[in-house]
């Protein structure tokens, strides 16, 4: 057999093998990027300030990752920290709310937090209030929040637990729908 024929056959086999390899890798890459391509943009390690209809700060968001759904115009957020500024008038505190996962509506008027949710008022207008739950929905412009599951509300001298929280962020007044338990905890002086 001619050595040129052998080299030609080896080169042809090498070209076929590399072509098949490239084609096979291309289909795997397309499958991986298909799900990631769903977001029309992604932010990494960012701080975002959302304004309400009057152009005033509604909330500030800090998180390691945010992805925007192009169809619904909603935001999915990993480990968000929402900073809700104090509202108008006396008695309004700023709030910090953290969670494992977050979601923001297209209009920015509804924040859904899930997984190890913790909220703390600044205490500028009175005792600080702490909230802990598995989920919490916050309406920053309306200055209210709600939760369906069990919630723990801690204030100096008091720990309150219950299900179905309704909270007015401005006045820090809250109510539960059921299973309410109160525990008095003396404060150190």
TrEMBL record:
- The positions making up the signal sequence are none
Has keyword Endoplasmic reticulum?
A: no
Q: Which UniProt keywords apply?
A: Cell inner membrane, Cell membrane, Membrane, Transmembrane, Transmembrane helix
Query: Per the record, a Pfam family?
Result: LptC
- Asked if the Swiss-Prot or TrEMBL record annotates the protein with the keyword Aminoacyl-tRNA synthetase, the reply is no
Under NCBIfam families, the record lists:
LptC_YrbK
Protein name, per record: Lipopolysaccharide export system protein LptC
| Species annotation | Agrilutibacter niabensis
Q: What is the lineage of its organism?
A: Bacteria, Pseudomonadati, Pseudomonadota, Gammaproteobacteria, Lysobacterales
């Amino acid at each position: 057999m001619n050595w040129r024929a052998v080299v030609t056959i080896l080169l042809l086999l090498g070209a076929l093998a590399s072509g098949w390899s490239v084609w096979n890798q291309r289909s795997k890459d397309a499958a991986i990027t298909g799900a990631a391509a769903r977001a029309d943009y992604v932010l990494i390690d960012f701080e975002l300030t959302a304004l309400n209809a009057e152009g005033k700060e509604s909330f500030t968001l800090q998180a390691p990752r945010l992805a925007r759904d192009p169809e619904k115009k909603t935001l999915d957020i990993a480990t968000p920290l929402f900073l809700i500024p104090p509202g108008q008038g006396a008695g309004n505190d700023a709030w910090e709310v953290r969670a494992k996962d977050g979601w923001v509506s297209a209009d920015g008027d509804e924040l859904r937090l899930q997984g190890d949710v913790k909220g703390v008022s600044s205490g500028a207008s009175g005792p600080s209030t702490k909230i802990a739950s598995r989920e919490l929905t916050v309406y920053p412009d309306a200055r209210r929040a709600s939760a369906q599951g069990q919630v723990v509300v801690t204030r100096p001298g008091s720990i309150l637990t219950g299900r179905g929280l309704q909270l007015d962020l401005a006045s820090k007044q809250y109510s539960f729908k059921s299973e309410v338990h109160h525990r008095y905890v003396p404060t150190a002086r």
